[in-house]
Amino acid sequence: xxxxxxxxxxxxxxxxxxxxxxxxxxxxxxxxxxxxxxxxxxxxxxxxxxxxxxxxxxxxxxxxxxxxxxxxxxxxxxxxxxxxxxxxxxxxxxxxxxxxxxxxxxxxxxxxxxxxxxxxxxxxxxxxxxxxxxxxxxxxxxxxxxxxxxxxxxxxxxxxxxxxxxxxxxxxxxxxxxxxxxxxxxxxxxxxxxxxxxxxxxxxxxxxxxxxxxx
Length: 215
Prior knowledge:
Elements: H1 6-11, E1 18-20, E2 23-29, H2 33-50, E3 55-58, E4 62-67, H3 77-92, E5 96-97, E6 104-111, H4 114-126, E7 132-133, E8 136-137, E9 147-151, E10 162-167, H5 173-182, E11 186-189, E12 196-200, E13 206-210
Parallel strand pairs: 6-9, 10-13
Antiparallel strand pairs: 1-2, 2-4, 2-5, 3-4, 6-10, 7-8, 8-9, 11-12, 12-13
Helix pairs in contact: 2-3
């Protein structure tokens, strides 16, 4: 199956869902545990019929759902079809979504030697030194955030090597950036916005607010 472009996903009209990084995400506001359990059960039945299984997280006030075609490493038509089905299940039960709520945090590490340090971080984070896939250390069980290595020239001058990538819905990023600035942060670089905006705290520690637009 072909990976859909961001434009194709936006054109699909998935009002409850937002694309973050390589997947579709939605949060459904169930408000109580029993309603959440019933929704998760219904999603499970639908996924079994479709032969395509999302990641579902149940908590007391909401249910989070992530959809991605792992064999394609991205969002495909079957994800869009299942997203529509899950939204229909929620709508039939009067359960609303909160499209601004989903967020994904990734760790980025600046290095000139991925081959040298990658296995260490893979072993530390996942327990498997072989969990290095290209420039990424990904835990298939979802215990820790994805770590990706940002290629750089070798250098001896101390500087920040780690930063956070905070993936947000494209229609929520501007407000989040404004909130971070109001809380004492500064915008270091918005030349690539809305793809990513670099922020810093008052100590100079940096993070990127990322969206799927402009990539």
